[in-house]
Amino acid sequence: MINVESLTKKYAGFTAVDDVSFTARPGRVTGFLGPNGAGKSTTMRVMVGLTPASAGEVTILGRRFADLPDPGREVGVLLDASAQHAGRTGREILTIAQRTMGLPKSVVDETLERVSLTESEAGRRVRNYSLGMRQRLGIGVALIGDPEVLILDEPANGLDPAGIRWMRDLLRGFADDGGTVLLSSHLLHEIEVIADDLVVIGNGRIVAEGTKDSLLAAGGTLVRSADPAALAAALTAAHIGHTSADRGALLVDAELAVVGQTAFAAGVPLVELRAADGAGLEEMFLTLTAESQRDSITDPEGAAA
Ligand SMILES: Nc1ncnc2c1ncn2[C@@H]1O[C@H](COP(=O)(O)OP(=O)(O)OP(=O)(O)O)[C@@H](O)[C@H]1O
């Protein structure tokens, strides 16, 4: 269990994380989603004691990270897959972790197998690893102490589709065994296939939180016509809220049957009509992304302050 309570982090007057609270629960994979610069890494760095909080606190398994008696065996952390010494081999890096934590030698081979790094890959220097191999090794270092909690910053970055499926299965198994997983991503679709719960952050604040299913279900109806203007006019006349979505479609705040009936009554032929399935979440995420890009353009001091 990870508990974030009213966490705020300021850098010289710039608020990177603004009164953030959420819980990542055992048995669940919690996705921490937000556009670049939203505050995900900062929150995770505070979690593991690398950055002090300006206000609020984070507890892991009921204690602050600094107060955990045996942190490596309680919390597995991957913040930056490229932070390993490039001149060491994968096996050496796992061996250092094994010795530091006082674990039996056998865990090195077990971990290599768990993260699907072959014998010859394990003997290669990390500078010659692909990004995906570095992520696997980083996940291995996080897992080696058999922790109860995993905190992973952008672990899917650099993984190919097969790698993402591998990671999903691995994290699913970890959570099914009672573990708590928190992983961040700036890509909705990447996290959508892995997470059970979502916490969405934008400009340092939580903007949505809940089970993935509930957030994806709250999408309304997606409808497309060859004549979008006539469709929009018909919906407006019927006082049904709608916004523009991808490729001329409309995202409508009403049930499927109501939208179909309204279009039919107005004589507007449709080419697509379906439950939006997360389009609401996607729209919200795109708006957030656009906002943060606009902020960085219109507020040049914002990010660096
Ligand atoms: N040491 C620092 N000093 C000043 N500002 C910082 C510092 N670290 C982070 N920031 C700022 O805090 C904000 C949040 O950054 P953070 O790295 O937490 O975002 P993120 O959500 O992890 O983004 P990304 O997906 O790009 O990794 C950004 O505007 C960033 O520039």
Automatic annotation (TrEMBL):
PROSITE patterns per the UniProt record, alphabetical: ABC_TRANSPORTER_1, ABC_TRANSPORTER_2
GO molecular function, one term: ATP binding
The ABC transporter domain, residue ranges: 2-228
SMART domains hit by this protein: AAA (SM00382)
Record keywords, A-Z: ATP-binding, Nucleotide-binding, Transport
Superkingdom assignment: Bacteria
Entry-linked SUPFAM superfamilies: P-loop containing nucleoside triphosphate hydrolases (SSF52540)
Similarity comment: family membership: Belongs to the ABC transporter superfamily.
Protein name as catalogued: ABC-2 type transport system ATP-binding protein
